[in-house]
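Entry for protoporphyrin IX containing FE complex. Fields follow.
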Amino acid sequence: MKQKSKGHNRRALALAALTAMSLSPIAALASTGGKLLLTGGVSQIEGAAGGGLTPWAVIGGYGTEGQFGAQAFYTRVSTDDYRLGVTGLALGISDRVELSVARQRFDTRDVGAALGLGRGFLLEQNVYGAKLRLVGDAVLDQDTWLPQVALGVQHKRHRQGDIVRAVGARNANGTDVYLSATKLFLDSSFLLNGTLRHTRANQVGILGFGGDRRASASLQLEGSAAFLLRRDLAVGAEYRFKPNNLGIAREDDWWDAFIAWAPSKHVSLTLAYADIGNVVIRDDQRGWYLSVQFGF
Amino acid sequence: MRNFARSMLVALAVMWSWSALADGQSPMAPAPAHPELRPVLEAFGGVPGLEALMDDFMAGLLADPRTRPFFENADQDRVKRQLVEQFCVILGGDCTYTGRNMRESHEGHVITAAHFNALVEVLQDSMNRRGIPFRAQNRLLAKLAPMHRDIVNEPPRR
Ligand code: HEM
């Protein structure tokens, strides 16, 4: 199983790089890359442009008004007992609309065996996202408090519906709706983001949607703060409140502390230390978050 | 949580109307003075530092294919001189800006957000070469950035 998932990671990385490359003819055709370095954020774990854990109001890729942008990514979060791998792609249109897809693979490793699913059993879901920038310019509107505000949806479809329903989830599919506000305070080299999410997802959806403790959606707040060290380098932290819908598997809030580096507009690397708390039968899950992104 | 959602929605509505108000304003001051930024002017090396910066900046604008078409036929010495005055005033220096406002200065050119950011990148490269600290750079850029509303004119602003 170890071998297999290693091979998978390499494939996912190659896929992300290939997708970015196959899109670059678009980049050559139209003018692209008009945004300033890192101002499109990085790819968050559900595929939207944002921090690592939470979506931001920015539109993915480096396209400004009248341009396209795109980003493909591979993210891996390895905690003591689990491993989450995410591959995804986001397309930015005219700095107004963002469309994204992501595949999350949650490797249950030994826990899979303990639960009788088999060692290294994978829980997988696809996330289809769309985001619309409503108002504001997080970067250029430096003379007002008005942040950049965007409305987004993430439609999630679990691939092991029977399993997550057996754990107590009400549904195998769900749709999150979120409102994000992002503001760069350039004179203090500081960025703030707040996201309000309407969701039924258990552990982002990896454990399905809704549960015995709460079947319906709830509002959850997510926040990020980042400090710019250089044009190509930012450090920060994020906090994501989570619902706790399942009686048998307590769900904790997630947080991380990250450093993101963009050596060019085509590549960025994000390294974070993440704490995802209790996941099913294992508590205090912490570990490294590593993300590679290619794009334009 | 429900109350919270309600206040978020109210906040959004307020921001919306605010941005509607902000549109279509008359041009902003081309060189708003910020006395509190005097230390930033020192970090730039005062007026001589600004003059040296503009030499490098103009060379960069002419070297970059994204900005060259705009500046190769411009009165480069005038633009440099006006930029020194403008940055000096913004950074709380004892200068007077004698140039035109930003809308008048740029309406003869078709300038997109991408052009605007390209110019910012060339300026950042110059400031880096001049050894100006990143945070000082950002304090200046924070005052220049809002001028995009008077400078970017493609697509046309309402
Ligand atoms: C915050 C950004 C900018 C600032 C602060 C700025 C400032 C200025 C100033 C002070 C002048 C001289 C005004 C005068 O002659 O009285 C000028 C002229 C000019 N600017 Fe900008 N500018 C900015 C952005 C841009 C951009 C993005 C472009 C195009 C890519 C551009 C192209 C020009 C050109 C071509 C002239 C000369 C115009 C002429 O003499 O006909 N500027 N600018």
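NOTE: Residues B 67, 70-71, 74-75, 78-79, 82-83, 86, 99-100, 105-106, 108-109, 111, 115-116, 119, 144, 147, 151 surround protoporphyrin IX containing FE (CB under 6 Å).
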